[in-house]
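User: Hey, quick favor. My workstation is busy. Could you predict this chain's structure for me?
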Amino acid sequence: MSHKVHPKSFRIKGVEDWNVRGFYGKKMPLYLEEDVLIKDLLRKVLIEASVSQIEIEHSANKINIIIESARPGIIIGRGGQGVETLKKMILSKMEKKVFSGERLKDSKKPREIKIDIREIKNPWISAELVGQWVAQQLEKRIPFRQVLKMGLERVSQNKEVKGARIEVNGRLNGVEIARKEWLKSGRLPLQTLRADIDYAKQQAFCTYGVIGIKIWLYKGEKFNK
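Assistant: No problem, here it is.
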């Protein structure tokens, strides 16, 4: 049997970097659960904001959260009210969460939270956003072959993308037996470590079941500095 590895996992510290960075000290389990808590909360709250990636940077008494989105206006809100609301939600969630009998705080004073929002100008070069689009189309009961062709055409129109593959798996179009279908265009060297592969997984919740979605985007080769 083959051993499938996430394209980013064995490229970390080579051509890729961690999504969570910083100094944890002696409270590694506490802050690790805190990171998962923050990411889960943001993805639930910002489900309509087309969020591609969430990065977290830790320092002694500060957490910097970087959100990459194709619709930053929804997150920011009027006069920045959306960002302030997110900060309050994260702080209240952190204060309530208990892990191993301890609150997720490294001191009596709560840590400062900074939210940095970055705009993605072209969503068709982001595997996460392409996966979200495919999921939305399948949930609208559009035939999966039409969705695969449309998605691959729109992705292939961008010069940054050298190759792409879109895969769906499940009870496609509501049939009784689940199966896997995919379309591919261009090059996709998954075994080359210097290849810049943008990979994402999504789920489409249809009336007849859950459809799994996988996206691979190849953006050329990347070398260490």
